[in-house]
Every structure is written in C-alpha cells, then in structure tokens.
Amino acid sequence: METDTITAISTPIGEGAIAIVRLTGPEAIEITSKLFEGKNLIKVESHTINYGKIIDPETKEVAEEVMVSVMRGPKTFTREDVVEINCHGGMVAVNRVLEIILNHGARLAEPGEFTKRAFLNGRIDLSQAEAVMDLIRAKTDKAMSVALKQMDGRLSSLIQKYRQDLLETVAHVEVNIDYPEYDDVEEMSHEMMSQKTKEVHDEIEELLQVAKQGKILREGLATAIIGRPNVGKSSLMNTLVQENKAIVTEVPGTTRDVIEEYVNVRGVPLRLVDTAGIRETEDIVEKIGVERSRKVLKESDLILFVLNYNEALSEEDKKLFEAIKGLEYIVIVNKTDLPQQLDLEQVKQFSDDRPIVTTSLIEEEGVDELESAIAKTFFAGDIDTGDLTYVSNVRHIQLLKQAKQALEDAMSSLEMEMPLDIVQIDVTRTWEFLGEIIGDTASDSLIDQLFSQFCLGK
Ligand code: GDP
Ligand code: ZN
C-alpha cells in the first residue's frame, strides 16, 4: 500500500507551551533533514533527540530552535518512521514550522490519521483505534465549535456561499447538458462556468489576502531594515525598540544568528530583523544581484530603506531601489543634522510614490513622522482590524490555497475549451476543499448534494 508522509501539531497548544509537530511516513526523516540545521538526521541513531534549528530553505530564515526526536519504524506508534519536532516558541513558532514542513513534501494529517495509521499497520486494534478516534473527534469538534463561535461564523458563512455558488453552477451545467433546449447550450454553460469560477477565485484570493493580514497581526509585520553600511540601520532599530514597548523579548544568551525584535508601533506589530539579517542586506545586492535580492526582500511585509542625507545617492542605493521596486517600503533619509549632500528630488524620482521621511536619529528627530508613515502604510485601504484574524488557522489557509489552485486549473481548462465534465472535476475538488474548512466531510459528496438540493438524475 502506498503511504505518504503526514504531519500535524500533536500537542494542545497555548502561548509559551512546548508544542510538538509530528511527522509520520516514509519520508518523515528525509523531509525534516532538509529543513534542519544540526546533525544529519538521516545518519543519527533511532530514538535519539537532536538539537538544532528549523530553517526555511527558500529564505534561509531560522524559524525556530528545536529538539528533534528521530524514531525509525517499526518500533513507533505508527510503525512508520516518526519525527517529533519540539518547539518552545508557542503558537506562532509551531505554526511557522508546520507551514515550512507542509511546503516541503508532507501533507497535513486529518484528525485521527496518525491513529488510523497505527491501526492499519497493525500497531493497535480497532477498539483501541476507535477509543482514540472518539477522543480526538470530541476534541476537534469542540475546538471547531469554539473556533466557529470565535469568528462569528463569518468565515464559514463565506465558505458556505462559495460552495453554494459552485454547486448551483454545476447543477445548471448538468441541467443544460441533460436537457438541451438550445443549440448554444454548451457555449452558455462555458460562459457561466468561466464567470462563476473567476468570481469565486477572486473572492478566495481576497480572503487569502486578509489571512495574510491576520497572520501579520499575530506574528508581526516582517520588517527588513536595509541600506548601505553606516547609514543608521542599527540606530533606527534601537530607536524603534526604545520608543516602543517590545512585544516579545527573546531568550537571552541564545546562539541565534538572527535576532528579532517585536515592537508595537501605533498598533502595528513589527518584527524587526537585525544583525546577520542586516549585515546580509547591507551588501545583498552586491552579493547576489538585483533579481535574487528582490526575491529575498519580497518575503518582508515592510522594508525600511535608509539613506544618508550627508552623502549623494550612490550606485548601490540605486540598485537597492531597483530591488525593492513595487514592494511595500518607506524611504528614510537619515542624518539630517549633517550637511546636505543628497538630492531629495532625485530620491523622489527613484522612490515612485512611496513615503519619504527625513530623520536625525542622533537628535531623535523625525521619529514621530516615521511612525505615522509606518501606521499609515499598514492601515491604508481601511483595513478593519476586527476582521483580520478570522482566517488565521494554518489548516484553513492551506485549504484555501488548494481551493484556489483547483479553480485555477478549472479556469485554464475552460480557456482551452475543454469539455465541461472535465472542468467540473476541478470545480468539485474546489467544493471539497472548501468543505473541509467548515468540517463538511467527504461523505456528503457533491453528487449527494445535487440530488438532495436539485433533484437531478431522476
Ligand atoms: P548601520 O551600519 O547602517 O547600522 O549604521 P549605524 O546605526 O551603526 O550608524 C552608523 C553611525 O552613524 C554611528 O556612529 C551612528 O551613531 C551614526 N548615526 C546614526 N544616525 C545618525 C544621525 O542621525 N546623525 C548623525 N550625525 N549620525 C548618525
Ligand atoms: Zn548596523
């Protein structure tokens, strides 16, 4: 039997508690080793605990310091290879670790799936499996109802609406195909399908955008401070940290090569990255070129680009402007206490319509203006912060992404004029992904729904 590698957060989590991300399956060790900085997990002995870091291979960012238990099958709960990643950083850290793992080959486990594997692999018998499943189900149902209550049913009513829209479209298409009264029925259906898939696609995209904002509120706006050496990046970081209460203080004396500071700037949580992060970004363009720097910088939600008032715009500055073009950034012209050498008109030309703030960090001038600019950047477009957190669940985000992908598949099939029953496969998949978000299980198939709601198929 083919099995894939599944993963889930396997401990009840709360801020500050130890949380475990667990993987089971043939690739559990291989996947983890790709993301792990420390000993080579493929070579370590079974049933050992290994200290190291989980790194996002794309951004090279350290997600979390962890203890990883490697347990090779069959002497494990599932009889498969099992890896347990112990995170100490609470909800945010554990979610981030889970996200990285999901992006690198593991699939999110369904509730009870670890137990199911243990059962299928003969590790436990059915009654034991059922007992565990009941417990899990009771927990998740409760968690789900609590979660649903928390979000006022907003997400679920949106999801219901999308599903209903898709369902109706599919039903109409079926009717048109089964009872062709017009010659151009096929074409009409195509058009309707295109319109509906696009509509739902765009709304899901918007929801994911909102999800990103929600994530920002929980994790902080990933903020990179960039600029040439000596322009005042560290000073800026220190100023922001001193002026604003730090939200999270890091574990002291750790060997992290990236230190993050969380500050709250007028209600906007910033996650500032310094030291190695900054040292890298100082000559990032020189080192890896404009295009690749851009890719790295794109990972930030906000970029603070510091220039020196006391120096003319250099080639390096221009390259940095190029690298951040179109991204969310604020230009900070620092050292205004020194004689002017920088042509502000020129800066304006390079920075499109992005905000430009002048500061003298040494004299503590312009800091208020900078903070206003940060707040404005974030709240531009009248984001209602009350709504921001409602799609914050990693599982929901993952499913929304899958739904969006399935719709994109449907849209490209439509574009290629594929038959509608082919297109419907992807629409049905979308419907199912959305169903998983609201806990509508696979037992209610689209076809059942069609029967019950539209009495199709005689
Ligand atoms: P970084 O290399 O970009 O991180 O720059 P630093 O923050 O380490 O600052 C480099 C130097 O510039 C330090 O000596 C700072 O004290 C100084 N500096 C920072 N801001 C100002 C400013 O507004 N005016 C002046 N005159 N010096 C500044
Ligand atoms: Zn510095």
Walk me through the structure.
By secondary structure, this protein is of the alpha/beta class. It folds into 3 domains: 6-109, Gyrase A, domain 2 (2-Layer Sandwich); 154-213 and 393-454, Four Helix Bundle (Hemerythrin (Met), subunit A); 220-386, Rossmann fold (3-Layer(aba) Sandwich). Helices cover 49% and strands 16% of the residues. The strands form 2 sheets. The chain has a 7-stranded mixed β-sheet. A 6-stranded mixed β-sheet has the order 9-10-8-11-12-13, with helices on both faces. The radius of gyration is 26 Å and the shape is flat. The protein starts with 5 loop residues before the first strand and ends with a helix. Guanosine-5'-diphosphate binds next to helix 7. Homodimer. Heterotetramer of two MnmE and two MnmG subunits. Mg(2+) binds at residues 234, 255. It is an enzyme of class 3 (hydrolase). Its EC number is 3.6.-.-.
Derived structural class: alpha/beta
Outline type: flat
Q: How large a portion of the residues is in β-strands, by DSSP E?
A: 15-25%
Kindly report the spatial arrangement of strands forming the biggest sheet.
3-4-5-6-2-1-7
**Which ligands accompany this protein?**
guanosine-5'-diphosphate, zinc ion
- Distance separating the two termini: 38 Å
Number of domains: 3
